Amino acid sequence: MISKSSILDNLKTLFYALIIALIIRSFFLQPFYIPSSSMEPNLLVGDRLFVTKYSYGYSKHSFPFSPNIFNGRIMDSMPKMGDVVVFKTPADNRTDYIKRLIGLPGDVIQFIDGNLYINNNQLLKTSVKGNENIFCGNEKIEVNFFTEKLPNGKVYKAAYRTSYSFKNSDKFLVPENHYFLLGDNRDCSKDSRFLSEVGYVHKDNLVGKAQFLFFSSDYRIGSIFKFWDWKNIIRFERFFKKIN
To answer: What are 186's strand-pairing partners?
Structure first.
């Protein structure tokens, strides 16, 4: 027979475990799941990653359900160009997005003939070989891969559709205390270029910096519950991969 004291001890243990998990999630690490292909080829649908909450300091969005407990950020630290950032979309301050930070406050961003310009300087873009088909939603699209080098020296891989659905733009002037973020899958991403849907992201909306993958599976092939087919479903080569 289970004693009353044993039940109380188990409940206390569960309560303490939940408190510890909440502290870790709010102040240190939070897991996220990649649901879209906007960051291909660097992040794939089905990737699970950890985000460090302390990288940029803390706002109300650092905590579950974004409680309105204080304004602004504490221990504020400016992100760097090229960081892969999780943020709450300005449209609803609730939905989590993950994109690459391209523009800092005061920067001018523009696309001309499919090339990215920052402060009127074209980014160095070098063609690289690789798989020429990646996903856009459930559709496979033909792309060209490039490495881009930001003004601070950060280098990453980006994909541009061969037909360039987003080729030219007006100039985007990043406001004070805001950031400009893009998906690496340039012609398949809702990001800061679309002002009515995402637009410029206020610093208070930053959740954290994406650091490394800890698990990845391809739901298009099958469920992870089909253990007999794990070699095809689970992307073991992506486990504990650092995010560039």
So the answer is: none
Buried b (16+ CB within 10 A) or exposed e, 30-55: bebebebbbbbbbbbbbbebbbbbeb
Distance (Å) of CA 211 to CA 3, 71, 75, 175, 232: 45, 26, 19, 27, 25
Query: Read out DSSP for 103-124?
Result: E-TT-EEEEETTEEEETTEEPE
Catalytic residue among 53, 60, 88, 99: 99
For the stretch 76-106, pLDDT in tens is: 999 999 999 999 999 999 999 999 999 999 9
- Our answer to whether residue 38 is catalytic in this structure is yes
CB 141 within 8 A of CB 188: yes
Q: Please list, in sequence order, all residues whose beta carbon lies within 8 angstroms of the beta carbon of residue 14, skipping any fewer than 6 positions away.
A: none
First vs last C-alpha separation in the chain: 55
β-sheet bridge partners, residue 180: 103
Residue 243 gets which letter from DSSP?
A: P
Query: Which residue out of 38, 192, 216, 217 is catalytically annotated?
Result: 38
Asked if 139 contacts 40 with a C-beta cutoff of 8 angstroms, the reply is no
Longest C-alpha distance within the chain, in Å?
Answer: 76
Domains with residue ranges and CATH for the chain:
4-65+76-238 (2.10.109.10)
Q: What is the pTM of this model?
A: 0.90
- pLDDT for 148-168, tens place per residue? 999 999 999 999 998 877 889
